[in-house]
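Hi support team,

I've been running sequence recovery on a batch of backbones for a student project. Most finish fine, but this one hangs at about 90% for roughly twenty minutes before it completes. I'm not sure whether the input is malformed or the queue is just slow. I've pasted the structure tokens below so you can try to reproduce it. Let me know if you need the job ID as well.

Thanks,
M.K.
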């Protein structure tokens, strides 16, 4: 039974972080060693990011709050609010993104109305509150109170895949099901100044955003392209448990993103793809570049470089991932939704074009999906 992503919409908060301006602020922080300052400049400049978005309005150079918590413009200092203070902002600002993206996804699905939604799956690893985002979405959108709700928390950058996989399973079990999936992350809540390379890297690449999709087995209506969800697989690499992690500290969540992560991905990416491509006869025997589209989670520029090189993909096949990284940074679980949205918005050349999608996260976990871009108008 085919299951479709009938719509896919994204949302970002209004405040823009210009990479060069953020670099200069972080490089000038008191307490940085000479090496730390050089690392800030190197990480920001080599990230292949121009802009990111943040839900923390006071991180803007135009903001002048009376009692700054995150950034004191007068002294040019990045501050260190408590985890509680950061999470209180998450509860307010993440809710806005969940609702905005969710509303847009339902509105963008022809033939689907709010009363048709049977399940809501929300995803985030950058904050906690309860009643949670799933509850807030049901109330704000006016969904049926009987809607089944699920929240996937603290899984990391790959979490969109378990959410979409669960949505597909719900639809296979019940062909009338209509599942609203929303990933929203406020990574910028957890930025801090430090001489630690992992912390500096996090400050250089992470941003905020949300992506939402309506998933159902109902046949598509209208000429707009949709994405068919074909197969999903998950693989744990034999090494890398300590190389990528996400921990809760007293002053926000603490990222571990070791410099060896791109090399681990390079060493194990082909093995991670084997069980996915084995789902369809003939795919595993073809060059990887023969799959038309590659929706790779842009965890960082070096990760994309390793994927492109190891799989011998063309530069054009990495454009959606690289452009998403350049415009938005790494938004954790929401990012791959932006990459897929980029593909939906580009002209298709055939009625059906295959997509291989991948994301990486703590563990080291590799989530993969084999999808099909379906363009009914062709």
């Amino acid at each position: 039974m085919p299951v479709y992503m009938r719509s896919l919409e994204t949302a970002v908060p209004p405040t823009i972080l210009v990479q060069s301006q953020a670099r200069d602020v972080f490089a000038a922080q008191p307490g940085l060693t000479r090496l730390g300052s050089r690392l800030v400049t190197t990480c920001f400049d080599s990230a292949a990011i121009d802009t990111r978005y943040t839900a923390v309005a006071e991180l803007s150079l135009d903001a002048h709050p009376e009692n700054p918590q995150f950034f004191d413009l007068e002294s040019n200092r990045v501050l260190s609010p408590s985890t509680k203070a950061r999470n209180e902002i998450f509860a307010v600002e993440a809710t806005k993104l969940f609702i905005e993206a969710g509303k847009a996804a339902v509105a963008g699905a022809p033939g689907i109305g709010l009363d048709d939604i049977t399940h809501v799956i929300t995803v985030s690893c950058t904050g906690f509150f309860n009643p949670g985002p799933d509850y807030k979405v049901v109330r704000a959108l006016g969904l049926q109170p009987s809607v089944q709700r699920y929240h996937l928390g603290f899984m990391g950058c790959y979490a969109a895949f378990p959410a979409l996989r669960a949505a597909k399973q719900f639809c296979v079990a019940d062909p009338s099901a209509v599942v609203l999936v929303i990933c929203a992350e406020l990574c910028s809540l957890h930025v801090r100044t430090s001489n630690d390379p992992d912390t500096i890297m996090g400050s250089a690449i992470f941003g905020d955003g949300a992506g939402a999709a309506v998933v159902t087995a109902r046949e598509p209506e209208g000429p707009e392209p949709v994405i068919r969800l074909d197969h999903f697989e998950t693989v744990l690499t034999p090494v890398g448990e300590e190389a990528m992690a996400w921990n809760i500290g007293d002053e926000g969540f603490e990222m571990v993103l070791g410099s060896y992560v791109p090399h681990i991905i390079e060493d194990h990416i082909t093995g991670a793809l084997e069980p996915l491509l084995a789902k369809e006869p003939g795919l595993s025997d073809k060059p990887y570049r023969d799959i038309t589209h590659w929706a790779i989670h842009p965890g960082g520029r070096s990760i994309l470089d390793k994927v492109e090189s190891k799989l011998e993909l063309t530069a054009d096949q990495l454009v959606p991932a690289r452009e998403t990284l350049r415009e938005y940074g790494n938004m954790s679980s929401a990012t791959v939704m932006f990459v897929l949205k980029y593909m939906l918005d580009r002209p298709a050349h055939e009625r059906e074009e295959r997509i291989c999608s991948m994301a990486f996260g703590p563990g080291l976990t590799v989530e993969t999906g084999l999808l099909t871009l379906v363009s009914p108008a062709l």
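--
Follow-up from support: It reproduced on our side and the slowdown came from queue contention, not your input. The radius of gyration is 20 Å. No action needed from you.
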